């Protein structure tokens, strides 16, 4: 084992002490940091729609909390955004309207009148993005012939084809898998007076007179982030042509194949599923296959995993939790403070959680069900979820190795080696790392993105965050074992080359999972340093110069989600503690912790802390698919503490 690092006493001990006390007081009984992972505004309505199709409604207490949340986050113009901080879209506005009606809110409610006044002039349900129309069709509020096709027969194509569904990013394919089954069956909720009333309310005109052929191509400008390409339009025409001649026998074979894949996903994840959308859609599929059967009951039992009650109501999280991810970061932040004795109980509990949630086996028949081997990886949330991720595994491994000198690591050497093996198995040909799997399809498949509202959903490409985390973990492992390992050395070198290749001319890296350049640049710099770059490396000097150029006059940094959407720095209205912490961690890693820029940033961060040890709420710092903001509850408790710990070392 490697020698224990030198323990340094932080100068701002009272500030760090209060921050550590907040972390300790918010640690879950399981040893993790469990919290709010909400933000997206399309999750609750899809859940409510799914229940309605099954003849169910949320229980009374949950219904009240869900309604309160949707009302709280209705925009001033009457619509709802893709997330709670975004401008209104027809997609989310119509779906949230429908959800509120299904939960008993009256048509003449003031909020619903305002919603109709916003979305009807913009085309109403006919102008919704693609996912909205599919959910409306499932409810019988839209006609299937007005959808772009999602035939299940695509799964029967030769797997060697570059556009076979198995080559898609796992989140994409796991959403379109049950969608294809439901589309293939033209599954539809039973008609009811309530649905008939809602149908009249969400269309601007006579439903019977709708031109469903034209409706396929109609999308409100509010919903278009990824325009439909000529290639997508051509593919849609081919699939529509197939739909006209699709044979019953082949359709049934395709539906059976899709159902087999759905069952494998459910069983591998203990009916949690990779995310809330395919969770609900898989459940609805089983309702049509076997109403009230064991699969439906198993899904219903795991629905609570996705809900979180907060001050603004009950929300549906974007995952069953972010527990492993947050816990691994929290461990590294706490260890960085040097307060190992005072924080020993907290670290011991975190170590217990990390050990308990490493994935110990591969899924059943991984090749048959298009799964990368899982053994040794760590997931974003919990072991039961069952989908390990490259950077989650890397951060889990880094946390274990940070705990080892303190005698607190609980994961055996053999299992740590399994984690290393998992990371090595995930490196792409370009030297980088993607999220859940190796990149399976060509990046050009993005031209077939049918979602309208999301970007980079088709292929699991290499990211600076995943690549840096894996390079850092492998470098930490190499130091830990203190012996040569050619595979590890080669992987680190290739990873570093990828990080250098994707650095922008201005010195930054684009963050894909956090907002945005402060996040991506933190990873880019630390990845190169872990690979052996000197602080004087030109790439690092450009990176720190970039950060300094965006430091605010008060010493802070601030970015908003629009940075991700627009691919350029978009300044927030005031300084953000999380962005400032990422910038400070980057400067300190590059040897600039004593610089005037770092000093002013740390001073701002200290002054921002409240008397209770917390940093005040601020805009969302998480993002996915370049467009949708998502909240990481623990970030404001973890990263400011970590940044001050490394900046105040003397």
Automatic annotation (TrEMBL):
Gene Ontology CC, one term: lipid droplet
Pfam families documented for this protein: SQHop_cyclase_C, SQHop_cyclase_N
Domain Squalene cyclase C-terminal: 322-646
Keywords for this protein: Isomerase, Repeat
GO terms (BP aspect): triterpenoid biosynthetic process
PANTHER family (alphabetical): LANOSTEROL SYNTHASE, TERPENE CYCLASE/MUTASE FAMILY MEMBER
Family: Belongs to the terpene cyclase/mutase family.
Protein name: Lanosterol synthase
Source organism of the structure: Stigmatella aurantiaca
């Amino acid at each position: 084992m490697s020698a224990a690092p030198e323990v340094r006493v932080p100068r701002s001990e009272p500030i760090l002490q209060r921050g550590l006390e907040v972390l300790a007081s918010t640690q879950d009984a399981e040893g993790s940091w469990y919290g709010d992972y909400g933000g997206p505004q399309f999750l609750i309505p899809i859940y409510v729609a799914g229940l309605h199709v099954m003849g169910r409604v949320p229980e009374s207490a949950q219904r009240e909390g869900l309604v309160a949340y949707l009302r709280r986050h209705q925009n001033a113009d009457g619509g709802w955004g893709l997330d709670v901080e975004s401008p209104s879209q027809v997609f989310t506005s119509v779906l949230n309207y429908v959800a509120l009606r299904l939960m008993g809110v009256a048509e003449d409610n003031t909020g619903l009148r305002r919603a109709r006044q916003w979305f009807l002039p913009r085309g109403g349900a006919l102008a919704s993005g693609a996912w909205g129309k599919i959910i409306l069709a499932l409810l019988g509020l839209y006609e299937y012939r007005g959808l772009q096709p999602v035939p299940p027969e695509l799964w029967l194509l030769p797997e060697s084809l570059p556009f076979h569904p198995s080559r898609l990013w796992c989140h994409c394919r796991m959403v379109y898998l049950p969608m294809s089954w439901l589309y293939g069956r033209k599954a539809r909720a039973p008609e009811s007076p309530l649905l008939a009333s809602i149908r009249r309310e969400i269309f601007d005109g006579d439903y019977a007179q709708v031109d469903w052929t034209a409706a396929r191509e109609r999308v409100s400008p509010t919903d278009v982030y990824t325009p439909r390409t000529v290639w997508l339009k051509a593919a849609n025409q081919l699939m529509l042509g197939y739909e006209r001649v699709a044979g019953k026998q082949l359709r049934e074979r395709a539906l059976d194949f899709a159902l087999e894949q759905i069952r494998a996903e459910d069983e591998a994840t203990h009916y949690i599923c990779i995310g809330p959308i395919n969770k609900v859609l898989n459940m609805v599929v089983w309702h049509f296959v076997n109403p009230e059967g064991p699969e439906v009951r198993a899904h219903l039992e795991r629905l609570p995993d996705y809900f979180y009650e907060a001050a603004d109501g009950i929300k549906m999280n974007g995952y069953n939790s972010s527990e492993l991810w947050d816990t691994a970061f929290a461990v590294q932040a706490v260890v960085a403070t040097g307060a190992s004795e005072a924080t020993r109980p907290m670290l011991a509990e975190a170590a217990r959680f990390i050990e308990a949630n490493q994935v110990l086996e591969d899924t059943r028949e991984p090749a048959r069900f298009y799964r990368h081997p899982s053994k040794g990886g760590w997931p974003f949330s919990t072991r039961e979820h069952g989908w390990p991720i490259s950077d989650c595994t890397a951060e889990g491994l880094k946390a274990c190795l940070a705990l080892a000198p303190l005698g607190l690591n609980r994961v055996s050497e053999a299992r740590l080696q399994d984690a290393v093996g998992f990371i090595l198995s995930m490196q792409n040909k370009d030297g980088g790392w993607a999220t859940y799997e190796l990149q399976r399809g060509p990046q050009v498949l993005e031209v077939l993105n049918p979602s309208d509202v999301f970007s980079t959903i088709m292929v699991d490409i290499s990211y600076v965050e995943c690549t840096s985390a894996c390079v850092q973990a492998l470098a930490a492992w190499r130091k830990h074992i203190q012996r040569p390992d050619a595979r590890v050395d080669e992987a680190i070198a290739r990873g570093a080359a990828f990080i250098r290749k994707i650095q922008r001319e201005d010195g930054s890296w684009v963050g894909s999972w956090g907002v945005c350049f402060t996040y991506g640049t933190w990873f880019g710099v630390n990845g190169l340093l872990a690979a052996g770059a000197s602080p004087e490396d030109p790439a690092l000097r450009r990176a720190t110069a970039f950060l300094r150029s965006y430091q605010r006059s008060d010493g802070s940094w601030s970015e908003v989600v629009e940075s991700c959407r627009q691919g350029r720095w978009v300044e927030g209205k005031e300084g953000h503690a999380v962005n400032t912490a990422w910038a400070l961690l980057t400067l300190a890693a590059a040897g600039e912790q004593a610089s005037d820029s770092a000093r002013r940033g740390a001073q701002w961060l200290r002054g921002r802390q409240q008397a209770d040890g917390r940093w005040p709420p601020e805009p969302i710092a998480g993002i996915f698919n370049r467009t949708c903001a998502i909240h990481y509850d623990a970030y404001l408790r973890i990263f400011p503490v970590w940044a001050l710990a490394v900046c105040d070392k003397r």
